[in-house]
Amino acid sequence: MADIELQRVEKRFGEQYAVRPLDLSIKNGEFVALLGPSGCGKTTTLRMIAGLETVSRGKIILNGQDVTWLKPSQRDVAMVFQFFALYPHLTAWQNIAFPLQAEGDSRENIKRRVKEVAELLQIEPLLKLRPGALSSGDQQRIALARALVRRPSCFLMDEPLGALDADFRETMRSEIKRMHILQNATTVYVTHDQIEAMAMADRIVVMSQGVVQQVGTPAEVYHAPSNLFVAQFIGSPGMNLVRGTWADGVVALPGGNRYTPPLHWPAALNRGLDGDGVIVGFRPEAVMISPHGPLAASVYSVDLHGAYTMLVLEMGDDHSIHARVSRDAHFSVGETVRFDLVPTAVRFFDPRSERAIQA
Amino acid sequence: MAISTTSAQINYATRVDKVGTRYQITRSLRIAVILFYAVVSLIPVFWMVTAAFKSRPDVVAIPPKVIFEPTIEGFISLLTKRVLLPPGMVEEYKQRADLSFAERVMAERGQRITGPSQYGQRLLNSVIVASASTVLSVLLGVLAAYAFSRFNVPGKGDLLFFILSTRMLPPVVVTIPIFLMYQQLRLYDTHLGLILLYTVFNLSFAVWLLKGFIDEIPREYEEAALVDGYSRLQAFRKVVLPQAITGIAATFVFCLIFAWNEYAFALMLTSERARTAPPSIPTVLGTGGIEWSAIAAGTLGFLIPVIIVTFALRDYLLRGVTFGALRK
Lengths: 359, 328
Fold this sequence. Notes:
The complex is a heterodimer of chains A (359) and B (328).
Chain A: E1 4-13, E2 16-26, E3 31-35, H1 42-50, E4 57-62, E5 65-66, E6 77-80, H2 92-103, H3 107-121, H4 136-148, E7 154-158, H5 166-183, E8 186-191, H6 194-200, E9 203-208, E10 211-216, H7 218-223, H8 228-233, E11 240-247, E12 250-253, E13 257-259, H9 265-272, E14 277-282, E15 287-289, E16 295-304, E17 309-314, E18 320-325, E19 336-341, E20 347-349
Parallel strand pairs in A: 3-8, 3-9, 6-7, 7-8
Antiparallel strand pairs in A: 1-2, 1-4, 4-5, 9-10, 11-12, 11-14, 12-13, 14-20, 15-19, 16-17, 16-19, 17-18
Helix pairs in contact in A: 2-3, 2-4, 3-4, 4-5
Chain B: H1 2-9, H2 21-52, H3 56-60, H4 73-79, E1 80-84, H5 90-94, H6 101-107, E2 111-116, H7 119-150, H8 156-165, H9 171-184, H10 191-215, H11 219-227, H12 232-243, H13 245-261, H14 264-269, H15 277-280, H16 292-312, H17 314-320
Antiparallel strand pairs in B: 1-2
Helix pairs in contact in B: 2-16, 4-16, 7-10, 7-13, 8-10, 10-13, 11-12, 13-17
């Protein structure tokens, strides 16, 4: 239904940048998540697309049309707010019908369309109630219905699940995902919850301090973070990052460990590193415990998670790393374990630029 | 089985802290204090209501009469102009067959009704001036408050302070300049003159009060309406106004009461045509002495419209005077 294109879009409040010049193009039908810690500019970006925030510089193109200076009502977008923003003085039915009344649709049409969307979301029994009488989950369903009923060219969602209870969030997550698949409408979804972004999005835009850190599929962002911020921000716990020095084809790590990078890396490291410092990054699940592994660390704590066990290891003084191991394995605190890293899952970063080294 | 019967007899809902002697005593004390305060506050109202129905000797009786024979003498005196009949003619006048009920009542006091008084007109003036100025100040106030609440008005703080500062001057200070200006502008003794003045006075109050209420309404509602396809003004009308209704009602009543009660300017700036009730009620001087029952009747009549409005808006007010504290 719609492509969204942001060209060098930026937002300043006085001298302060909320969003630094940003380029992003979202294809028709794509589900894009803007992910980042609070204050990173993701909501501001969304609000600029909606037209609720003016653009300091740059262009927003919606479906081939420059909408940078159009009012929100002229943009054919629908928005779902974090706190639902259901009109408290109107019933659920009136809330859903509200945008249709703005279009001046006929009474019968409005009735029919509200009924359709209510059936789709299974909210017919709630239609006569006011938002105050609804649970937060049902309120969010009504808010979703209000957005869906117009069949807009794109959906903008600002942390729509942020105000819901944890167990309900999952249900709504799959509901939103299902809606997206059914409607195939372009969706921009703002969240600070990486699990939501990972589970729902076709592509994730990771933002921090008004700057886009990385744009990629959930797998790319997870496995090949483009810089230290993304590496730490994505995953819980984040990627293990161990500082070392690169010399003579070997990375010297704390605790006297020496790690030989997999075959395709040395050339890239020689090329990409500025100086001899290097940061080795690997996910907790990239740790393979093996008695003959090249690396050694002592067990600091053993956390049982049920499906797996998370070890906190200490590599030299105060360099702790996480390792995800089988739940059947047994470790005791203080014990020294030897391990290797899955060769395809190891990443290297330059400590000065904080960027990933490309193999 | 035995155990379950026993436990069923225990009233688990009884709160220990609410059955103790100490709690009972403080509770009774509290109620006593409140009752005492209510009685003290209501005595003048009680005096006024009873006085309105008392005959002339009963009003001034000492000690005051609590039980008395009600009469509407006071109301008749309030609404009519009368002359004192010469002593010799009273009996003769009473014998006349064409006397109305009111005339008969007043004849008992040796008075003859000569025509209606101006009380009705004065009360009507009060209604016109108070309602027009209240509607105007709430209307302008809600628009200004919305702008101050939502937009980056240049010099917002200074403007708000300036608006408030109009309240800092004791009104008496400006009565004479305003009186002179009004004479030049031909606003003296006109409804418009009082309406303008009261609107200006109430506007500062309305803006500040309403701004507080509108600040409490999350912007998200309007933003949702903007995205839903409405213009800013439509969003204001359809989304903000309905939610500000409690605040609007509270402001309305406050402004109305001010305009309704205003005395000093009404006294200075009106004489005949536009004179409102407050300055005219104390001047209900009858033939020979102060007509306390007529004054009390006039005050009662003056009180009723405010009671009606406040009562009509009571639901909004209850929520409104908590200043949004109970808003979900």
